[in-house]
Amino acid sequence: MDTISLYSSTEFQLSIGEFEDAFYNARRRYSLRHLIFSGDVTQENILDALQKSIQICKLAGINSRHHFKKIYVYDADLNTICIDWCMSKKGFNLMVMQLPSLNEKLARWLWKLADL
Predict the structure, then answer these.
(1) pLDDT band at 5 (very low <50, low <70, confident <90, very high)
(2) Could you tell me which residues come within 8 angstroms of residue 67 by beta carbon, excluding any fewer than 6 positions away?
(3) What are the tens digits of pLDDT across the range 75-91?
(4) Alpha-carbon distance 67 to 89, whole Å?
(5) CA dist., res. 46 & res. 48, Å (int)
(6) What is the distance between the alpha carbons of residues 105 and 116, in angstroms, rounded to a whole number?
(7) Rounded distance, CA 95 to CA 85, Å?
């Protein structure tokens, strides 16, 4: 004899949400510290590029949270908390394209992006 088992849709939705969060967290491998390669980029330029990148996602109908996540990093030596951003490869590349200053290192990175 077969039986019907009832599953709560809220439990199912919770497990799907947890899986989705884990999936996108695993894809966010880059952070603002990876922008060191670009040389003379100011904090203001980085934040402007970040805001533009998130805006591009929104205008394109892409969920920006899949590519950008704000994190807080504690520095035990200085006893301070800093804000950083974890980014997917697409999010990071989009941000690099938004940086205003162009130098040799940034030009090489853009050339690699053009090949993707």
Answers:
(1) low
(2) 28, 53, 57, 87, 88, 90, 91, 94
(3) 899 999 989 999 999 99
(4) 8
(5) 5
(6) 18
(7) 11
**Angle (CA) 26 29 32, round 5°:** 140
Mean pLDDT of the 66-74 span: 93
- Other C-beta atoms lying within 10 Å of the C-beta of residue 56: 16
pLDDT level of residue 1 (50, 70, 90 thresholds): low
pLDDT exceeds 80 at position 41: no
The DSSP bridge pattern shows strands 68-75 and 80-87 to be: antiparallel
Cβ partners under 8 Å of residue 85, min gap 6: 31, 32, 50, 68, 69, 70, 71
Q: Give the helix ranges, DSSP H, for the chain.
A: 9-27, 43-59, 89-98, 104-114
Q: Supply the Cα-derived Rg of the chain in whole angstroms.
A: 19
